[in-house]
Amino acid sequence: VLHGHGFGGARTEDPKGSFLERLQDNGYAVISIDQRGFNDSTGTVRIMDPDYEGQDLIQIFDWAEKNLDYLVYERPSKASPYNVVAGANGGSYGGMYQLLIHNTDPKQRLDALTPDITPHDLRYSLNPSNTVKSAWVALLSAGGETGASEKLIGGLDPVLKETLARGVLTNSIHAGALPFFYYHSALYFTDAKPASEQEPIDFFAAPLSDLLTYEVPATKPKPVSILFSQGLRDTLFNFNESWNNFKAYKALGGDVRLLTHGSVHILPCTQTVLAQAGPLGEG
């Protein structure tokens, strides 16, 4: 089972008392990873770029198969090659990596995914109705830099820093950045548009960054078992995100389900204000 942390976080080194300990106690091997650019993982943070984070994640799978001789393999059918039995766990950014692996891994090694509070389309998540979620973008940027392995000189990729600066000035994400976030979303793969229909990615900071093109084709993912879970009051990735993820992956033919719960992304202090206001419908 692969485990990935949230944005700005780090891998779990001591699983005591966590769900990961329960997995280990039940005989599962668990690999908790540092996402690209965070904690001990180098490189700039590119928000689940298929060309970077996607390739990094595939290499982890390759390493595990090469070095861990106790992994279990199955053969789905006589026509299919033996494939490692694998699942994935994590929420938010730790849910995004699960979808990215399944969408990009040519061997399709994940058998079960459990993404919690995970976006479907980052353009909608960060810039609904062409109005940037300024508080969330600022908070995520600060958290990204704080948790980055190479702060300031690395951290968030230059094009992401540009997006923040221009978003603060214009109150929207500029048009050239929106295709970048689309390419980094699950929707890019479930849409499966041909290359001729993809819009160009454009940043002032492009010379400071690499590979701002669609290197990974938009190919529809294969059916897979997924349990999506979603906090109903989430203000960063709201219920529409999980509902759209559910519909898109269910349409592929897998065993896909959606569970709601109370844990959410919510801005600091907002919960306190809501609590002081009392139950909905009261003065």
Summarize the structure.
With 283 residues, the protein is of the alpha/beta class.
Encode the helix/strand succession as letters.
Answer: EHEHEEEHEHHHHHEHEH
> Number of helical segments?
10
What strand line-up does the widest sheet have?
2-1-5-6-7-8
C-alpha termini separation: 48 Å
Helix content: 25-40%
Tell me the radius of gyration.
Answer: 19 Å
List low-pLDDT spans.
270-283
Strand content: 5-15%
What does this structure look like?
By secondary structure, this protein is an alpha/beta fold. It contains ten helices and eight strands. Strand 7 (225-231), helix 9 (239-250) and strand 8 form a beta-alpha-beta unit. Helix 5 runs antiparallel to helix 6 (158-170). The protein is globular and about 55 Å long.
Could you name the key traits of this structure?
two-stranded antiparallel sheet, 6-stranded parallel sheet, 13% strand, 10 helices, 283 residues, 8 strands, disordered C terminus, alpha/beta
What is this structure's SSE topology?
Blueprint: E1 2-4, H1 19-25, E2 31-33, H2 53-67, E3 73-74, E4 83-84, E5 86-91, H3 93-104, E6 110-116, H4 122-126, H5 134-147, H6 158-170, H7 178-183, H8 186-191, E7 225-231, H9 239-250, E8 256-261, H10 270-277
Parallel strand pairs: 1-2, 1-5, 5-6, 6-7, 7-8
Antiparallel strand pairs: 3-4
